[in-house]
Design a protein that fits this description.
This protein is mainly α. The protein has one domain. It has 13 helices and no strands.
């Protein structure tokens, strides 16, 4: 069980870093097929599935709580080098996906999903309003519904190899607010601040329900898509990945730009590319 919890922690760390795919980490650890099977057959093989899934979910939760504060600090204090590192992580994972479509040709049925998903990501980034626009986290009916839908999107992208759920949250403007809410929840528990804790619970309930729905829905959908439209599905993922660095740069705070920041950013980009390519190549 300890080994599975540690695997869950690695998956959690991957999911919290924009550009690093939790699904890719699952593949690298050799547990992706078993995890998808456990989710899709949860009710028919409940005890067996839960014995495998629970330690993983515990590890993911531990990683999110422990590392949320670090990444919130990096984005607020060093936005340019941090976001360029995320871009490197994303682009470094592209060869991991393209190897699945290598030597399979390229026609209109592959170009359409690639272009459509590319344009969807760019449109979402433009619609989000840029670096100064973060999601409204005030608890009202509309925002609760949005949190539920965002949870579905985040969960769906978290379990697809090569696609980063946290990158999608960043594109939609929810990455930093969710990190801040996780950190606020930890602080509220430590200081017994009931009002803040209740607010955090109000955010986590719809977001968490969305994640549960998204994980189960996408697991079934992944099985269906890869059985029938494997190559087209990979090209859709490639379109999403290629657009994601553009979306992140559009939403980066460039007010602190300097030559030194840019040079550091180039180094962090290269490091992100190297790290992602190594993870994806395992």
């Amino acid at each position: 069980m300890l080994k599975t919890i540690l695997e869950g922690i690695l998956i959690g760390i991957a999911n919290i870093i924009p550009g690093v795919s939790g699904g890719t980490m699952m593949v690298a650890l050799g547990i992706y097929d078993k995890l998808i099977e456990s989710i899709t057959h949860l009710f028919s093989r409940f005890k067996k599935s839960m014995r495998f899934l629970m330690p993983i979910f515990v590890g993911i939760a531990v990683a999110i709580v422990v590392f949320s504060r670090l990444f919130e600090f990096l984005i607020e204090t060093y936005p340019i080098p941090t976001n360029l590192a995320f871009c490197g992580l994303i682009l470094g994972s592209v060869p991991f996906i393209t190897k699945h479509v290598k030597n399979k040709g390229f026609d209109l049925s592959m170009a359409i999903p690639c272009i459509v998903f590319f344009m969807i990501v760019i449109a979402m980034a433009v619609a989000s309003g840029g670096a100064d626009s973060q999601a409204d986290m005030n608890l009202n009916f509309v925002n609760v519904i949005l949190l539920f839908l965002i949870g579905i999107v985040a969960a769906a992208t978290m379990v697809i190899p090569g696609v980063s759920g946290s990158m999608m949250l960043m594109t939609l403007g929810y990455y930093e607010p969710i990190l801040s809410t996780v950190n606020l929840a930890v602080d509220s528990l430590v200081h017994f601040n009931l009002n803040s804790l209740l607010y955090c619970v109000g955010v986590f309930i719809p977001f968490g329900l969305g994640i549960v729905v998204g994980v189960f829905a996408i697991a079934k959908l992944i099985e269906w898509l890869f059985e029938r439209f494997q190559t087209q599905t990979y090209w859709a993922i490639i379109g999403l990945l290629l657009a994601s660095p553009i979306a992140i740069l559009l939403n980066t705070d460039w007010s602190s730009f300097s030559i030194i920041q840019l040079m550091i950013g180039i180094l962090t980009f290269a490091f992100g590319w190297f790290l992602s390519s190594k993870l994806g190549g395992e």
